[in-house]
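Appendix B, Record 12. Input sequence as logged:
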Amino acid sequence: MILYHGSNTSIKFVNLSVCRPFKDFGKGFYLTEIKEQAEKMSVRVSRIYGGVPVVNIYEIDDDFLKRKDLKIKDFGCVPSESWARFVMNNRDPSYTDYSDIECNIDNKYDIVIGPVADDNMALLFRQYQGELISFENLVSGMTFREMTNQYSFHTDKAISLLKKVGEQI
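Logged structural output:
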């Protein structure tokens, strides 16, 4: 399987310590099967941080989901209540129940797979927590309208499965 990572730089070695916290599935290295999604992300990241848009291309064995030595959480491609709670908990800096299976702040999962949440979620969280919108409206508002997916790698064991096979500038 080929996965893409949109960035503002060529990534020779993945260093989890420089990954940003409070992302959809926790602090980790994020990739997608959708090349166009990675291309858009590379442009966005370059616009924000400078540099040149680069799509880093990785390969991973097709059967990695069957590995018994990895903890993998796969939400599939359709947003669900469980996915929404997971994203909400991981994006919330004040969330502290690390033992909860609906968060990955402690990197209990090596790899997490699922839809991409919309970037305008802070307002939706406040509206939901203030009981101004229903949970169903929160889930609907969190979801990009176009088909997206993300694979997040949270441990060195998971990162070791990725083999860089190229890049596109």
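Residues 56 and 167 are 4 Å apart (CA to CA).
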